[in-house]
Prior knowledge:
Blueprint lengths: L1 H10 L2 H29 L5 H9 L8 H17 L1 H4 L4 H7 L2 H37 L10 H6 L1 H4 L5 H30 L3 H19 L22 H28 L4
Helix pairs in contact: 1-7, 2-4, 2-7, 7-10, 7-12, 10-12
Amino acid sequence: MMKNxxxxxxxxxxxxxxxxxxxxFSLNVFQLISILNQGKLDKLDIxxxxxxxxxxxxxxSDFFIFQYIHWIxxxxxxxxxxxxxINSYKGLDFMIINRSGFRLKWWCSKIISLFLLxxxxxxxxxxxxxxxxLLFLYPADYKIWSAYSKIYYNDLYxxxxxxYKLFFICLCIMLTGFIAITxxxxxxxxxTNNNIKIFIVLIIIIIIxxxxxxxxxxxxxxxxxxxxxxxxxxxxxxxxxxxxxxxxVLILFNTIVGSxxxxxxxIL
Length: 268
C-alpha cells in the first residue's frame, strides 16, 4: 500500500517535472552566457563552482533585485514540480484521507515522495551543471579559488574552506533547504485545506520576509526562501552545519505538525 502511494505521488509530477527540467536547462544556458560574457569583459577566468554559485548559491546580503527574482524563480520551479503532491483533498487523496486507518500512511507517503523529488531535482541540477561546464568551461579545479570568486564572492574566497568542501556543503544546504520549504508548504496546505487565497498571501509574506531578513530585521528562520541559500551565511564550517541542522529541525517540525493535523482534523 505505502509503495503504491509513493509511486503514484511521484508519477503524478511527471509532466511538471519534464517542463521544469527544460526550464532549468534554459536558465542554466542563459546564466552561462551571462557569466562568460562577464568574465570576458572583466578578463577573469570562470570556473565551474563560480557558475554553480551564481545560479544556486542563493541571495547575498547586499543583493540586487534581479538576483532575488532569480532565486524566487528557482524556488518556484521546485514548488511547481511538487505541486501535485502538495495539493491534497482531491481524487484518490480525498478518499484515502477520509479513511482514518490510512491517514498516517497517506501523510508518510507524501513526505517520502517530497524527499525523493527533492533528491531527483538536485541530481538533475548537478547533471545539467556538469554537462554545460564540461562543454564550455575550464576543467574543474576545486583546490583553488578563481579570480572571479575573489571579486564577486570575496567572503568565500577569504574563508578557510577549499572550493571542493564548499561545493559539497552547498549541495547539503540546498537539499535540506528544498525539503524544508516543500514540507512547509505541504503542512500549510493540510492546515488550510488547500485554500488558494491563503496560499497566495503566504507567498507574498515569504517574499517580503526575505527582504526583511536581508536587512537584518527578522531572523533567518522566518525567511523560507533563504533555507537553501548559502551566500547569506558567514562562510565557516560551524555556521554551515548550524543551518543544515536548522533545516533538518524544520523538516521534522513540519512533518510532526502535519501528522497531528492530518490525524485529528475533520476533513469534511
